Amino acid sequence: HWREHPRNPVRSDARCARPAGRLYWHDGALHRPAQICVPSYGSGIVIQRVLRLSTRDYAEQEIGRILPAPGDGVCGLHTLNRAGDLGVLDLFSRRPRMWR
């Protein structure tokens, strides 16, 4: 069951507050993918390592970023998720219309 954290919102920052997928464990630590919404919505994904999570406290530290490569046609990234051996990255790009 979900309960609101007493410090809600624990993050209020367009660079890293919006969720970008489920929290996951890696190398014994909990990680939280978040959207980078600066300079625009879905500019990339930042990976935050959760340092403290208790009923009274929350702290995290940025450990990496996933950004579109210049010239690859990707405009932004929204979600990073995993289900078993399947990894999913939700991205968006602009393509010319086929019909007018």
Q: What would you call the structural class?
A: mainly beta
Number-wise, the strands total: 6
> How are the strands ordered across the major sheet?
1-2-3-4
Residue-averaged pLDDT: 87
Share of β-strand residues: over 45%
**Number of distinct helices:** 0
Through-space gap between termini: 49 Å
Strand/helix succession: EEEEEE
Shape label: elongated
Radius of gyration: 16 Å
Q: Roughly what percent helix?
A: under 10%
Report low-confidence residues grouped into runs of 5 or more. Answer: none
Largest sheet: 4 strands, antiparallel
Descriptors:
mainly beta, two-stranded antiparallel sheet, 6 strands, 0% helix
Structural notes for this entry:
The strands form two sheets. Strands 1-2-3-4 form a four-stranded antiparallel β-sheet, with no helix packed on it. Strands 5-6 form a two-stranded antiparallel ribbon. 0% of the residues lie in helices and 48% in strands. The protein has strands at residues 24-26, 29-36, 44-53, 58-66, 74-83, 86-93.
SSE inventory with pairings:
Elements: E1 24-26, E2 29-36, E3 44-53, E4 58-66, E5 74-83, E6 86-93
Antiparallel strand pairs: 1-2, 2-3, 3-4, 5-6
What is this entry, summarized?
With 100 residues, the protein is an all-beta fold.
